[in-house]
Amino acid sequence: MDGFDLREGLVLAPVHGVRFTASAGACLADVTCPPYDLIDEEDLARLRAADSHNIVRITLPDGDHAAAGELLRSWLSSDVLGVDPSPALYVYERRTSGDVQRGLIGAVGLRDESEGVILPHEDVYPGPVQDRLALMEATGAHLEPIFLTYEGGGSASDLVDATADGAAPLVEAVSAAGTRYRLWRLDDAASLGAVATDLRGRRALIADGHHRYAAYRAYQARREGPGPWDFGLALLVDALRYPPRLGAIHRVLPGLDPLEAVEKARAAFAVASPGTDLDTALAALEKASDGLLVAGAGRFWLLTDPDPARVAAALPAARSARWKALNTAVLDGLLVRGLWGITPDEHTVQVVHDDAAHAVDRAASLGGTAVILNPLTVPGVTALAAEGERVPRKSTSFGPKPRTGLVMRLLEADAFTL
Description:
Layout (H helix, E strand, L loop, with lengths): L11 E2 L3 E4 L7 H4 L9 H10 L5 H4 L5 H13 L3 E3 L5 E7 L4 E10 L8 E2 L6 H14 L1 E2 L3 E5 L4 H12 L4 E4 L5 E7 L2 H11 L4 E5 L1 H12 L9 E8 L6 E3 L1 E5 L4 H8 L4 E3 L5 H10 L4 E5 L2 E6 L3 H7 L6 H4 L2 H13 L10 E4 L2 H11 L2 E4 L5 H9 L10 E3 L8 E3 L8
Helix pairs in contact: 4-5, 5-8, 6-7, 11-13
């Protein structure tokens, strides 16, 4: 597929999708998995045990990127994975008993942030970017679509719904939790043209996948001239029709004693005891718009009313008032870096998506401290992104995130030109 003009705005190109074949010999739910950054050690062991062909063996290869590349190539040569012979956009549906998400999987045209077409909203850690880049170099593939949202309501969204409501799916999988995933192909010229026309002039927010998007851009920068590296695998969802969920990302600091942490926090916060059980403490946190819940040693403390002078001194002066009011900005700038004297990275500050109980349990098992946060708001995050600001690293947990392994992409299979 060729002839794409990125000057026209948001572009989602059809790809030769890489998918598990019937010869994989297993239920599709057993060979697919959540995104790599939602999988802890316990999840990893369970997924590996579920099937010898679970895609997690490639997306999380224990740092052996070369082995991941060899495994991908062996699965392709043995027909465990197949490459669709013609390019397509893929209609994606995720359905639970109370929720439906639909969108399009394809190759999004990569854009510089200054162009205002692909809007990142979150900073990244260099370590995960380098890890994803190394995996991309070793495999020559995009294994997991990033998650983009846009304000749609147009013909592309109508086409997605008409396809999902009116045609038999290409594949279907039901996870152990009962979540149903379905895919359809859009490969006719009329449908692809309608999508391209509707997206022209629009812009998208990176809801999830900032590290992978940064890796896309780094991979692109290492190549000369136009090519398939100018595009990255993505799920694009109309946020007006299928609004995303936004959860919090909690922090676990393995080396920080909770009693010491609270004593240091008293220099800049009001400290209260919100109860002795997690549910009561979470209810108190929800009522405190500026609250941070510290947990450890079987206890909870609610931090509120951060000292404005301390906040101003700890946070970058050039940042907007909206940014300085973010709970993650106050946590990272005033508490973690400031009062606690910790330089945050993926080792000193671990993250747990959404699940406060899991964060508390992990801190307890490590003898450290957990910090539980209220989620940010979608309008607030979008407003910051539109103004060119990014929230601190790991501030948002947008969902539902796309299932890994339903559609992948080999760069060598797509001969794009611009």
